[in-house]
Design a protein that fits this description.
Strand 2 and strand 3 form a beta hairpin. The protein is mainly alpha-helical. The longest helix is centred in the last third of the chain and has 36 residues, at 99-134. It has 6 helices and 3 strands, in the order αααβααββα. Strands 1-3-2 form a 3-stranded antiparallel beta sheet. The termini are far apart.
Length: 135
């Protein structure tokens, strides 16, 4: 039997209840992992399929080994990324999205697509704002 409490509520309704806005809400840590600069890029790259660490690093320009490793660990701890280590020499580690990660990455990809679609307008605003600040 379904009750009103069983129905998932949209974020806009939850914000009014304040769960995510509470300092101790565990969803904040997941949000940090998913929406960090590197977290977003890892999720989007892994939508394309399984990648080795070195492949991820090559595809994500500017990320250090340390930051990529920390990002992958965070996403893995949230159940979004699966790490498979093959016991061979040299070590062979693959990363892939879990079903949960795939669902999250699809949402994040929509945000990335929006940014790319609106980048010209955003950059124009920045240029105009920079000129206005110099006057």
């Amino acid at each position: 039997m379904n009750t009103q409490d069983d129905i998932p509520r949209p974020f806009s309704e939850k914000i009014r209840r304040g769960e995510l806005m509470q300092a101790d809400c565990p969803s904040r840590e997941v949000l940090k992992h998913m929406t960090s600069r590197w977290g977003v890029l890892v999720l989007v790259v892994l939508l394309g399929g399984t990648h080795r660490f070195s492949e991820l690093r090559r595809k994500i320009g500017g990320v250090s080994e340390k930051m990529l490793s920390q990002t992958l660990q965070g996403l893995e701890s949230d159940g979004l990324v699966h790490r498979l280590s093959r016991p061979i020499v040299p070590p062979y580690v693959e990363y892939t999205l879990t079903p949960l990660g795939n669902a999250a990455a699809t949402k994040v990809e929509a945000m990335v697509d929006w940014i790319e679609d609106n980048l010209h307008e955003i950059m124009q605003f920045r240029r105009e704002n920079a000129v206005a600040e110099r006057i």
